Amino acid sequence: MTSRFFVLGLLVGICSVTLASDPSPLKDFCVADSTSSDSVVHVNGKVCKDSNLVEAEDFFFSGLHIEGNTSTPSGNIGTKAIIPGLNTLGISMARGDFTPSGFSSHVHPRASEMVLVLKGRLEVGFVTSNLENRLITKFLQVGDVFVFPQGLVHFQRNARDTTLSAFSSQNSELSRVSIACFESNPAIPVDLLAKAFQVYEKTASQIGGI
């Protein structure tokens, strides 16, 4: 009998772990309060604005129709929709603009991304995780949609286009692989970079501009 209770308890414990997930919001909304001294805290959401003071403007953003300045090293710029009402809802949106030779290669550690091509033609792709490391890539036309799974290295390259991206997190973050590896502060030792990328130390130094 004791062994049966032990097995039952073990199964309950396993199920409780398996069914665990992020909690659903306990309110209809939690508009970020920009006036609060605690509003800079950003751990799964910011301080909520008094619901009696919430208005339509808290759920509105105008500006994704404006082309961004693509005078960047990568020829790409992103414009994020800043909407206080998205706080704790687990979604976000951004516009991406590319020059004819523009590209972007990065990782979103906390979100999957869905991209919609609004103008031009876009080459996209992502690399699956170990041990496959398989490249999945496709050329997109206007109106096409593509999904990048959360946490996977992915890229977008273009012949002049505009995209609209949606993310499964209000704070997806963006980590560019090259900058994270070769421009960290303090710098990653050159010998480690050489081993990680399987190149000579001189080559690693030249890549990082050391």
* C-alpha Rg (nearest Å): 22 Å
Helix count from the secondary structure assignment: 4
Strand order of the largest sheet: 1-2-9-4-7
Spans with pLDDT under 50 lasting ≥5 residues?
4-22
SSE series: HEEEEEEEEEHHH
Shape: globular
Biggest pleated-sheet summary: 5 strands, antiparallel
Class by alpha and beta content: alpha+beta
Notes on the structure:
The model is unreliable at 4-22 (pLDDT under 50). It contains four helices and nine strands. The chain is an alpha+beta fold. The protein is globular and about 60 Å long. The chain has a five-stranded antiparallel beta sheet with strand order 1-2-9-4-7, with no helix packed on it. The protein has a four-stranded antiparallel beta sheet with strand order 3-8-5-6, with no helix packed on it. Strand 5 and strand 6 (135-140) form a beta hairpin. Mn(2+) binds at residues 106, 108, 113, 154. Belongs to the germin family. Disulfide bonds join 30-48. Oxalate binds at residues 108, 113.
